[in-house]
Amino acid sequence: MKITDIRATTVMMPLEAPLRHSNGAHWGKFVRTIIEVETDEGIIGYGEMGGGGESAEAAFAGLKSYLLGHDPFQLEELRFKICNPTASLYNNRTQLHAAVEFACLDIMGKKLGLPVHQLLGGKVRDEVKFASYLFYRLPNEQTGEGEVRTIEQLVAHCTELKEKHGFHVHKLKGGVFHPDYELACYKALAEAFPEDRLRYDPNAALSVEDSIRFGQAIEGLNNDYFEDPTWGLNGMRRVRSMVRIPTATNTVVVNFEQLAANILDPAIDVVLLDTTFWGGIRQCIKAAGVCETFQLGIAVHSSGELGIQLATMLHLGAVVPNLAFAADAHYHHLQDDILVGGKMKYVNGAISVPEGPGLGIEVNLDKVREYAEMYKEFGGYPYDRDPSRPDWFPLVPNDRWADHRR
């Protein structure tokens, strides 16, 4: 079997409301690039990639000469064709490779009539549990609804998500307001949901000293872990030495060299694996195996997925035995999806692992065209800017917080 074509289409998916984070915002819409990898046997595999509000179509077009004629079953050869570590010093293609690997695994499963989890060693669980992903949100531009700014709004939003989807773990994405205010928000969540687990992630916006102060203030709560309070392995190592909560990251351990450095001199207790950031599902499984050997925890990170990437997260979660934490997902913030039948369903805070051939999902090409037209109409946006603060830009560590009073 040979690859005969690769096509990339950028889509824009509306969110319930703009999602704020320490580095800017998702401006009420996700921009994702959907790829179709076609073979000489007529089998088409699908992949997906983000891009911080921007299209990746041109980058995928640049891969065409590498991919035409390639056998989609030759995944290690594919990795070195696209991500040779020396060549990647000049053109880092890790996330592009991930999307192509998704599509190749989809093709392989469809060819063999097997779900991807069977190609990856077989599943050890039938469903993957998820955490609610709580963001501070700006009001929806059209309806004026959906704002999350006050403590009351945050608790009400979490209550709604728990009632609708059954979440038992709640993650607060912080780094937007002053740490003292976000500490009050976090404590309010703990008080409102005393039997549920919590995690806090300010996207490395805090200084080491503020991270220690915040972490010590929440030590007695029902925490999963303390995710990326500050930047860098050494900063996280200093926090870890002073706070009795497991540390976690999706920013400073995202490749095997960083993982090795962390094992030799520990700074991170829980590594959040991302099927895009690490370069594919198989890379994540390799990393999970290293973590299992050295008894580091793992979780699954969300980089703003639609249904294709969500399927890769589910297959990953199905096959790694040491996944002891609920996964993250932005998915419940979406208004729609590009899958036939619409969005996948949460049941008691979990989503079932797809059992159909390949990724086990069916892409609705009419939806792809619909949301591709939306992208053409509105264009991209700068992920690292906040539309409510046009002159602001992020510092690390930050000291210019948004005003929670307005």
UniProtKB/TrEMBL annotation:
Pfam families noted in UniProt: MR_MLE_C, MR_MLE_N
Record-level Gene Ontology MF annotations: glucarate dehydratase activity; metal ion binding
Protein keywords: Metal-binding
Record-linked InterPro entries: DgoD-like (IPR034593), Enolase-like_C_sf (IPR036849), Enolase-like_N (IPR029017), Enolase_C-like (IPR029065), Mandelate_racemase_C (IPR013342), Mandelate_racemase_N_dom (IPR013341)
Catalytic activity: D-glucarate = 5-dehydro-4-deoxy-D-glucarate + H2O
The Mandelate racemase/muconate lactonizing enzyme C-terminal domain, residue ranges: 151-246
Superkingdom assignment: Bacteria
Pathway(s) the chain acts in: Carbohydrate acid metabolism; D-glucarate degradation; 2,5-dioxopentanoate from D-glucarate: step 1/2
SUPFAM superfamilies: Enolase C-terminal domain-like (SSF51604), Enolase N-terminal domain-like (SSF54826)
Transmembrane segments: none
Enzyme Commission (EC) number: 4.2.1.40
Name used for this protein in its record: glucarate dehydratase
Species, as recorded: Paenibacillus pectinilyticus
Lineage of source species: Bacteria, Bacillati, Bacillota, Bacilli, Bacillales
